[in-house]
Design a protein that fits this description.
10-stranded mixed β-sheet
Length: 279
Amino acid sequence: MNALGEAEQGEGPDGEDAGGDHGNYVPMNELVGRGAYQSSLTITLADGTVLSPAEVHQLRRSQRREQHDVDVGYVDLSFPTDRIVGVLDWNGSWDTQTGPVLATGVVRVPDDGEVQLKVSAVSRTEPAGDGWQIITEPGDPAVDLGFLNYLAPNIIGSISLGHVDASSFSALRHLAPGLRKLYLTWSGLGDEVLADIAALRELTWLQTFGNRFTDVGVQQLAALTQLRSLYLEEETLTAAAFAFTAELPLLERLGVQDVPLTADDLAFLKLHLPGVDVG
C-alpha cells in the first residue's frame, strides 16, 4: 500500500550544490548536540562490508558523481545523528549494493517534492534475498516527530507514520507546503491528531487504518478540499463518519475497508456521493 516499499533499482543523478531556496535551517549540532554516529548504527552491504550510515551516504554520493555530471537540483535534509528515524525513497534512490536510504545524519535528496519518508524506529538494514530487510528497534519505540521541524518544508511529498509519539504530532504541520500523501498505518492514534491532519491543506491522498478515530472527530477532515483519494479504514467508525465527504469537491475514491458497514450503508454512501468510487 505504501510506495516506500516499492523503491526502484538504480541510482539517481546527484549534484554537488543543493538547488533551490529552502530557507534557513538549524545546524545539526543545535538539534542533537555534537555527538557522532553511534557504533550500533551500521549497515551491512551485500558483500558483507559493514558501514556506518555516514559512510553509506558518502559511497552513494560518489557513485552518482561517477555516473552523472549534471546538477539536477538537490537539497540536504538534516536528521538526528544518534538514531535512525525512518527510510527515505525517491526515484532511483538506492541499489542492491547499498540498500535503502536511512533517515539519519545529513541526506542529500532531490528538490522536486517527490521524496517519500517512512517514519519508524529503525535499527539497521541488511540484505535479504533479492531485496533488503529493515530491522526495527526492539520494542518498536514511539518516534518523536520533532525532527520534522528541521526539514525543508516543501521537499517531502509523501510520509508514512507508524508508531509515533502523538504529543509530537503537530510537527507534521511543518511539512504542509509540500505534503501530498499521508499514511497512518497501525498508528493507534486518536482524535487528538485530527486537527493537525486537517491543517495539511495540500493533501490529495489520505489513508489510515489501525487508529481510534471517532465519527465526530473525523468531521474535521472536511478542510482537506484537495483530497482525491480517501481511505478511512477504521474499525472504530460507522456510516455517520463519512458525512463530511460530501464537502470534498475533488474526491474520486473513498475506501471503507474494515469499517463495519451494512449493505444499506454502502448503498447510501454511493447514492450521496455520485461519481465517487466507494468500497
